[in-house]
Amino acid sequence: MKHLVIFIPLIIAILSCSPRNKLDPPDNPLDPNNPMYESPSAAFIDGPNEGDIISTTSVTFDWQGNETALEYSYKLDSFDWSLWSNNTSTTFARLDEGQHRVQVRAKGLNLDDNSTPIELNFEVNAVSGMSAIVYPYRQYGLPGDT
């Protein structure tokens, strides 16, 4: 009987620690497994609209991110992605005639950089009338090149 008195409180203590009484962790808005999680994203707020034809060889794009976005990276056409930064604007200069695509992606507090990039397609038609142009506008040369 004496042993039973010692084991009953021990059994109650063990049962009170069972997983069915475990508290759920608080919701973490940065946890991608949380149903309320919002992936970092961006949206264009200024610049050409989808399918616009611009008559200059330089264009500026502005964007903004949602609440979870902290840094952004962008690219034009097939060039490499820019480095991550908190800049929300960029200007592309010396654009060639024709179709172009700009993309912007966002990264959040949890460093989630797998967000789906936004993209916008536009056309440059800056040559008017009879003209001669150097194509591509952006030329690279090294000392001694001809």
Report on this model:
- This protein has 146 residues and is mainly beta.
- Helices cover 10% and strands 30% of the residues.
- It has one helix and seven strands.
- The protein has one helix at residues 2-16, and strands spanning 42-46, 53-54, 59-65, 69-76, 89-92, 98-108, 118-124.
- The strands form two sheets. It has a four-stranded mixed beta sheet with strand order 2-7-6-4, with no helix packed on it. Strands 1-3-5 form a three-stranded antiparallel beta sheet, with no helix packed on it.
- It is elongated, with a radius of gyration of 28 Å.
- The model has no long low-confidence stretch (mean pLDDT 82).
Please write out the topology.
Blueprint: H1 2-16, E1 42-46, E2 53-54, E3 59-65, E4 69-76, E5 89-92, E6 98-108, E7 118-124
What can be said about this structure in brief?
By secondary structure, the protein is mainly beta. The chain has one helix at residues 2-16, and strands at residues 42-46, 53-54, 59-65, 69-76, 89-92, 98-108, 118-124.
